[in-house]
Design a protein that fits this description.
65 residues; two-stranded antiparallel sheet; 2 helices
């Protein structure tokens, strides 16, 4: 697993981190992708929150804003 630093979002409440398998990040091949890797939110108070994959990421971030 690797963080996709170029996709990290900074918001007023904290940060949104995206991750993937190292192999998929290197090759871009769907065969190397992992399923269910929803972004992780880390709020400025240090709490870690899972999001989901059923909706666009903005849907999940609205609750933090």
């Amino acid at each position: 697993m690797v963080l996709l630093e170029n996709r990290t979002l900074e918001r007023a409440f904290g940060w949104v981190f995206f991750y993937d398998s190292k192999r998929h990040a290197e090759t871009g091949s769907i065969r190397d992708a992992i399923a269910g890797n929803a972004p992780i939110v880390v709020t400025k108070d240090g709490q870690v929150h899972k999001t989901g994959t059923a909706h666009p990421v903005e849907y999940y971030l609205r609750k933090f804003e």
